[in-house]
Amino acid sequence: MTLSVVITTRNESANIANCIRAFDGFRKDVEIIVVDNASTDDTKAIAASLGAKVFDKGPERSAQRNLGWRTAVAPWVVILDADMIMPRETIEEMLACASRGDGIAAYWIVRTGDGIRVKARNFERSFYDGTCIDALRFFSKEVLEKTGGYDENLIAGPEDWELDIRVLETGAKCEVLKNHLIHNEKRLTLKKMLEKKAYYTKSFAAYQAKWKGHPAVKKEAVLAVVSFRRCVRREGEVEETSAPSHSRGRYVFRARCRRNRVSGK
């Protein structure tokens, strides 16, 4: 076994099959681990029917991911969300990287797709190569064991940025894969995107406090706002966006949205 695929889920019956089936044809080298957080739909049943090892864990994604990689039997681990799909050429590249033994400890994988968040990240990515906004996703299990994995005091968003910092602080060599993954966020509306961002800010203050003054944290705050503003203006869904305001250590994104597009009124 060369690669363990860890997929975190919560009510992902619409996505989980496509995510798992992307690895058909590689199953002699790949194990699939699904860590579910109290789904009330058929997510777990679908995953099990497709040969995945299924576990239950909560309360947040960081704890799910940690259970997944700690359960993994392969020396390399890739962390996915259920709405992500790995193209064949990316899987082939990951298996080749895992077999090389060239001292690289982890990789960033560029996301592509049609959703507004993907467009925002692609615009932002034009400023630099390798960042903890587009977090490390493909790891040697050795570097995860060395760092301890994800900080379970942080929830969706900051926990993967924070792990990037700790991996790089060890002096580990990290690179960007040549191939990409597909992030299926086409159906994510601007309203839902803003709701997700608001949810992500819940532990941003703790993340900032933990790494106060770190260059990566400053970079994330500035570039995330620039890319967000540019993208939503391109989409024509926002009349105006403000600069981030800082309140109790949290960045808050505010937008005046056209009601007929965002609220559905």
Tell me what you see in this structure.
- This protein has helices spanning 16-21, 43-49, 61-71, 88-100, 116-125, 141-147, 158-169, 190-200, 204-210, 215-235, 259-262; strands spanning 3-9, 30-36, 53-56, 76-81, 84-85, 104-112, 136-140, 173-183, 238-241, 245-247, 250-252, 255-257.
- It is of the alpha/beta class.
- The chain has one domain: Spore Coat Polysaccharide Biosynthesis Protein SpsA, Chain A, CATH 3.90.550.
- The strands form 3 sheets. An 8-stranded mixed sheet has the order 3-2-1-4-7-6-8-5, sandwiched between helices. The chain has a two-stranded antiparallel sheet with strand order 9-12.
- Helix 5 (116-125) crosses helix 10.
- The protein is globular, with a radius of gyration of 18 Å.
- The N and C termini lie far apart (52 Å).
